[in-house]
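User: Let's play a game. I give you a shape written as tokens, and you guess the letters that built it. Ready? Here's round one.
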């Protein structure tokens, strides 16, 4: 299996699916896209690590970002107060020529995330910037939770709230407290599901069960319930990707920044520098 070689590979448009596992992608992609699929090893097990280790120079890229960690705010990852939890002195605006904050402009309050259509809309509204850039990236939030059929998005809503607070703090003061940090999660449903969270640390599943129905967790278990919704999220994203690909003139690649864990080796979701196959094995599809 090759390393991802994201920037070293040949492409004009790269569509990044956030937290997309290779194995789940490989089972469903050909219902939406034609092309040559490879399994590649990512540079990181989370978006901050992937971005920090991938974009190390100055890159002429029009980057449409549905993920708030890759933004045009100019705040280094290690100074973010809304969930980065890393030591990376890296900001997208220092390495990428044009970053479009679709996580802000295309946010859907009802879904609690950035739907795939927002990425396509931002791309279509900025064709001049695309034409001027050497290459273009569209970074979709899906199949990353929240799961679109649920319309909850509690975890990302807390990050969005933290972003607003930090932006306000940056304008008003040089310092500030950590009011933008993620607060405790889902206390109201903790007693109902804690007994079902076997096999890993309770905190590792907190983000997942925020997005799930407690009754499903008790009935089906965390892994089964989450994987079903995860695949559905991926399919929703692939439908949008397939529509957009028809408009793209050039070499198109579909890949991911990292994968997602569902209990493998006691890991849930994705964490920085956790280099296990479910998090590091990503698809690399050269679209025909």
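Assistant: Ready! My guess for every position:
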């Amino acid at each position: 299996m090759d390393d991802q070689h994201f920037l070293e590979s040949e492409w004009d448009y790269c569509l990044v699916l956030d937290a997309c596992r290779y194995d789940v992608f490989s089972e469903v992609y050909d219902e939406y896209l034609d092309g040559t699929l490879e399994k590649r090893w990512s540079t990181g097990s989370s978006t901050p690590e992937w971005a920090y280790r991938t974009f190390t120079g100055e890159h002429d890229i029009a980057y449409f970002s549905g993920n708030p960690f890759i933004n045009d705010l100019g705040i280094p990852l290690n100074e973010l107060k809304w969930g980065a939890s890393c030591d990376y002195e890296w900001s997208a605006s220092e390495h990428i020529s044009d970053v479009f904050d679709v996580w802000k402009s295309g946010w859907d309050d009802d879904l609690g995330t950035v739907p795939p259509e927002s990425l396509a809309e931002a791309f279509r509204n900025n064709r001049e910037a695309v034409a001027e850039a050497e290459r273009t990236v569209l970074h979709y939030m899906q199949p990353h939770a929240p799961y679109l059929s649920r319309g909850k998005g509690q975890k990302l809503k807390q990050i969005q709230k933290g972003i607003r607070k930090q932006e306000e703090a940056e304008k008003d003061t040089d310092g500030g407290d950590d009011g933008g940090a993620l607060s405790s999660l889902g206390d109201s449903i903790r007693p109902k599901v804690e007994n079902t969270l076997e096999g890993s640390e309770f905190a590792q599943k907190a983000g997942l069960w925020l997005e799930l129905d407690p009754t499903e967790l008790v009935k089906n278990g965390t892994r089964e319930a989450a994987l079903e919704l995860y695949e559905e999220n991926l399919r929703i994203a692939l439908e949008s990707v397939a529509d957009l690909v028809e408009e793209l003139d050039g070499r198109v690649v579909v890949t991911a920044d990292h994968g997602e864990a569902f209990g493998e080796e006691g890991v849930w979701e994705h964490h920085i520098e956790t280099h296990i196959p479910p998090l590091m094995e990503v698809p690399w599809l050269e679209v025909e």
